[in-house]
Amino acid sequence: MTGDDKDPVDVVLERDPAPKSRAEAYLFSQGLHAVKMHNAAHRLYLRRRYKTARLINYVSRILTGADIHPGAKIGKNFFIDHATGVVIGETAEIGDNVSIYQGVTLGGISTEKKKRHPTIGNNVVVGAGATILGPITIGDNVRVGAGSVVVKSVPPNSTVVGVPAKIVQRTGATTIDLHHEELPDPVVNAFIDLCHSLSEMEYRMEQIEAKLGIKHEKLAVPKPPGVRSAEMACPVEEKS
């Protein structure tokens, strides 16, 4: 190993709190096994021993639940937390210090024999169930929220969520952040902004009415049927 290339077991222990020892991580980490078997298959793939490479890939998929094509290029310190349902296509390229969770797909959108899968930068975290499609580029230090569908390239130091995924945050972080569940909700944020805007408009109308000598009276608005839950309440406090 050279440079920042860590022992694969150390990578598992660093990013997964479940294993209680090196032996447990080595023997029972499906993600570790999937990466090791892919490395062997990839070496054979580069030597044009395609059938043997695909055989290792096939056995790996049965044993670990991860389907990583032998042609995919994977950088240093790659980590898969639970391997079940992970699919990585033939022309996918993954940088260093990348972490992905179960159910992630790095898929293609073309049947042509060319670059058709994503390129993932360094220090990227892809949340559980996320799908990244096509020959797009995910920049360094990006977080992809769980369940997101990414169909456009993402600039470095960004967080993306949603279907289709949209950028909701940009930072200058250069470290691995595994909190792929702690992400802002762009829909909720939009509603909060709307409520604030309505509150500001009401206040300005009151000021205009006061200057014109118009008596301000609140009209009784009929309530909708059913009980409104606290989650549906406007986050802006009503003025007294």
Summarize, please.
With 240 residues, this protein is of the alpha/beta class.
Overall mean pLDDT: 85
β-strand amount: 15-25%
Annotation, overall tally of beta strands? 15
SS element count, helices: 5
The 3D shape can be described as: elongated
Secondary-structure-based class equals alpha/beta
Helical content, roughly?
25-40%
Biggest sheet descriptor:
6 strands, mixed
Radius of gyration: 25 Å
Point out poorly predicted stretches: none
How far the N terminus sits from the C terminus, by CA atoms, comes to 67 Å
Main sheet: which strands, in order across? 3-6-9-12-14-15
Reading the helices and strands in chain order gives: HHHHEEEEEEEEEEEEEEEH
What does this structure look like?
There is one protein chain. This protein is an alpha/beta fold. It is 30% helix and 16% strand. It has five helices and 15 strands. The strands form three sheets. The protein has a six-stranded mixed β-sheet. A five-stranded parallel β-sheet has the order 1-4-7-10-13. Strands 2-5-8-11 form a four-stranded parallel β-sheet, with no helix packed on it. Helix 3 packs antiparallel against helix 4. The longest helix has 26 residues. The mean pLDDT is 85.
Break the fold down into its secondary structure elements and pairings.
Layout: H1 8-15, H2 22-28, H3 30-46, H4 50-64, E1 67-68, E2 73-74, E3 79-81, E4 87-88, E5 93-94, E6 99-101, E7 105-107, E8 119-120, E9 125-126, E10 131-133, E11 137-138, E12 143-144, E13 149-150, E14 158-161, E15 166-170, H5 186-211
Parallel strand pairs: 1-4, 2-5, 3-6, 4-7, 5-8, 6-9, 7-10, 8-11, 9-12, 10-13, 12-14
Antiparallel strand pairs: 14-15
